[in-house]
Amino acid sequence: MTLDNDTDLEGQIAQWRAYTHRRRELHHTDTEELEDHLRSRITELTESGLRDDEAFLIAVKRMGSLDTLSREFAREHSGRLWKQLVLPGEPDASTGGHGRRELPVMVLCATVAALAIKVPAWFGLDLSDDATFYARNLGLFALPALAGYFAWRRQVGPRVVAVLAALFAVGALGANAYPLADDSQSTVLTAIHLPLALWLVVGVAYVGGDWRSDRRRMDFIRFTGEWLIYFSLLALGGGVLTAFTVGTFEAIGLDAEEFVSGWLLPCGAMAAVVVSAWLVEAKQSVIENMAPVLTRVFTPLFAATLLAFLVAVAWTDNGIDVERDVLIVFDLLLVIVLGLLLYAISARDLTTRTGLFDRVQLVLVVSALVIDLLVLLAITGRISEWGFSPNKTAALGENVILLANLAWSAWLFLGFVRGRLPFTRLERWQTRYLTVYAGWAWVVVLAFPLVFDFA
């Protein structure tokens, strides 16, 4: 067995290991056990005269599909899975004392997040009268507590903690140090972009500081999709709770609206940010399949909608309206399309061949690319007529960033569908592009107010 063969074989085993890590039913120890079996079979096959690549393929084939293995492990370890669902505080053998503290630490972080949004009120800043202050600082109430939760859970070192603290401090300075008027465009842009920038800071804590790892960044993308589902479910439940609270107290002559608007809604929303993350971590084996299912449902629908829109544009020869609100709607549409693409990539089984869904995704990406070009034409038209402003410059930059992503994604997807490029190239492109989003969000928060004279 040569050095090159060893390297190739280890690379194939590493890819197989990364794939097993996506099966949340399989614990780390389960993966190690399966890898031991895999290596033993490879050794047996190579000793019988097969080459490394032949031995690897046959060994994987004989072990069966991971979906089957996952189901077998789920049945075998049903007690462990059930404990994950209903007894989050009960220690798992694999986590020991760390697992016993999981629930209290989550409650502490959620409480800190809930109380953080009440701190400005102690200094005379009212949630209603000073709404722009709360909007600018929205990302600073719950996300530090969430980052702290993951820093504790991943047991990150002091250097990572210092980096996280420094980034949140920079975010606080960017939101509050500039003399921005309440109605300035920079205020609105800060309110939109600072939570995005800080969410990616949370990603650094989520991956335990290992931000250079493509696999860990893909894990964070997967986590983000599942977190959105949990947060939406909690928001729906919170809405029902709010309605019952107001209605029941009103029935006995007490007005609960002040408590609801001043405490229940803001504190509950901030706490839900942490609770949703804990639910993803603790109960991921239950809901984790929802996000891929939703992605498979909405990807064809969005692809059909975008295609219908492009056909309508070609049929009527009408361009996109240059009104700002219309352009914002299109930008949101493109962001949703990008989210669908990201999550579909993160959830794809690397061992399956290309199929109809991959081609639908390619249609979705190409359609979004054409629409992004039309939006860019509309934005440049507004800029040539009215000049640069913070809003128009931010929109221009974001659409150029999306255009670059979609164009290269379409090329990689085409190569994958034609069987000329591996799917991992597309994965690496998307995970590494996260740094571009983070960089742009920080530029908008920190540099735009200075460039546009705090307009």
UniProtKB/TrEMBL annotation:
Domain of life: Bacteria
Protein's UniProt name: Permease prefix domain 1-containing protein
Keyword Transmembrane: yes
Segments traversing the membrane: 105-125, 131-152, 159-181, 187-207, 227-249, 261-281, 293-315, 327-347, 359-380, 400-421, 433-452
InterPro entries (alphabetical): Perm_prefix_1 (IPR047928)
Keyword Transmembrane helix included in the entry's annotation: yes
Signal peptide: none
Protein source organism: Micromonospora cathayae
Record's keyword terms, sorted: Membrane, Transmembrane, Transmembrane helix
